Amino acid sequence: MYSELKGKAAFVTGAALATGIGFGIAEQLAANGMDVLLGDLAAQGGPLEENCAALRRDYGVRAEPITLDVSDAESIRAAVENIRAFAPSLRALINNAGINRGASRIGEYDAGLWKSVLDVNLMGPFLLTKALLPFMERGGTVVNVASRAGKRPLPTCSAYSVSKAGLIMFTKCLAVEYAAEGIRANALCPGQILTDMNVKRYAREAAAEGCAPEETMRRAIATVPLGRIGTPRDVGLAAAFLVSDASAYMTGQALNVTGGQITEL
User: Fold this and answer.
1) Active-site choice (109, 160, 178, 202)
2) Active site residue 202
3) 166-197 tens-digit pLDDT
4) pTM score, two decimals?
């Protein structure tokens, strides 16, 4: 346990799905005693409130939902007010909200879908980070959830790949510009993680190839040296490390959480 995190506050976006990376990160932060705000498009009632209730019950921390559209500046302004009411400062901002829309080569990619992906995956972290930087405590950390796709392009997912590559560079710029103020920034690059987004991708690929989704998943596992699909908990453990003092001399890094599928920096 990272005892220095106990009682500190964190904000995690894209945390409505109990099986998603956002909630996997929130669980590990709560396990280390952090109070957690969970942000997503629909916060009142439903899955996001259920996730907050689970964190309160299982870890004894404060946890509250925040309605947030990271691509909308007015939504961010309202969210910042709620965050300030929850805690005087933030130890951690986790920019996890992301989408992947469209599945076409660049020449056939719909321009509207392309823009929507970049608005959420890249513009969103910029707008939210910009709004919350004044409230980050010294020693605070921004963790941006990028992807292996930001280092190796996923065919027919160019908007997603480009947005995640941009998010990695945004992380590096943030790290260099705010190091003197004691704020660190690092990125996580998950690989094959068992989330709803990847399950849908396996099903989509299976339909295109005329095989069962289990077959596309089996082939995905075969590309991972550790021999298994990752879990949101795997990503959450890495995030908790980046938020903690154990990584105090690390900033501007993009860590792979890929089971060895990607080994380059």
Assistant:
1) 160
2) no
3) 999 999 999 999 999 999 999 999 999 998 87
4) 0.95
